[in-house]
Amino acid sequence: MNRFKLIGVACALSVLTAISFGQDPMAPAAGQDAGATLKRVVKTGDVYKFKLKADLEFSGQQVGFTSNISEKVTDASADGNYKVESTQSDSKINMNGQEQDIPEQGHSNTVTYNAAGEILEITGDSVEAGAYRMATLGVLKAPDAAVKTGDAWSYKIAANSKTGVVAANADYKILGDEKIDTKDTIKISVKVKETEGSDPASNEGTIWVDSKDYSIVKSDTQWTNAPIPGAPGPINGKVVLTRV
User: Fold this and answer.
1) What are phi and psi of 14, to 5 degrees?
2) Terminal Cα-to-Cα distance of the chain (whole angstroms)
């Protein structure tokens, strides 16, 4: 894979940062015994910035990738749907011990979510085949009922031939409270795995959300057979997103 192919990889990875929870201000934190109903709380103009680090492997070759990502809520409607525009900068790849800059392309993607965090639409200059499938594997779906530490919930993802989404099962569990730098967070385990196809893709790891507004603070996940747009085939690797 050359560095120009990695531009598509970067755009695909960037959509994973736009997922966050909101909480009813009157509800206790999810780590407390009473539990909490997780509810989307976003407003137009909200901005979140992340550092992305990916260690990828394909055909026996190791590739490192880093980028700065900015997410902006461009529209939050009364029905709970909202749009997040993702842009990236200062992207670099490391192949065979040599680090190179990826030229800025001015690309941005916009993902439309419903109140539960499900993906409704992806648009943008760099949206390629497989973008919906990749983004759906990274979904953090809000539970339907109040949850507390130790509680788990599941989500069945339906196949969609129009967008390329493959049927999958998603499982989540609240592991407890944890401090990330200055932020109080709730630690959530996540496992999303496709249930169809010869080489089903999966995403498994941990996500930390802010205990005040349930926005993503950190994500550390392992991808298997990831259908990254721009790549010559499925890719395995570790992807870490850290809020800055």
Assistant:
1) -65, -25
2) 29
Structure tokens belonging to residue 188? 């959530």
- Residue-level length of the chain: 244
The pLDDT value recorded for residue 47 is: 93
Find all residues with CB under 8 Å of 237, minimum gap 6, and list them. Answer: 54, 55, 56, 57, 222, 223, 226
Query: Residue 49 carries which side chain, given as an amino acid letter?
Result: K
Nearest to 87 by CA among 139, 10, 9, 21: 10
Closest of 24, 21, 3, 19 to residue 66, by C-alpha: 3
- How far from 58 is each of 22, 84, 103, CA to CA, in Å? 36, 30, 23
* Residue written as token pair 């259908």: 227
Q: What is the pLDDT of residues 174-196, one digit of tens each?
A: 999 999 999 999 899 999 999 99
pLDDT in tens, 47-101: 999 999 999 987 778 889 999 999 999 999 988 899 999 988 898 888 878 888 8
Does the global pTM surpass 0.90? no
Buried b (16+ CB within 10 A) or exposed e, 64-101: ebbbebbbbbeebeeeebbbbbbbbeebebebeeeeee
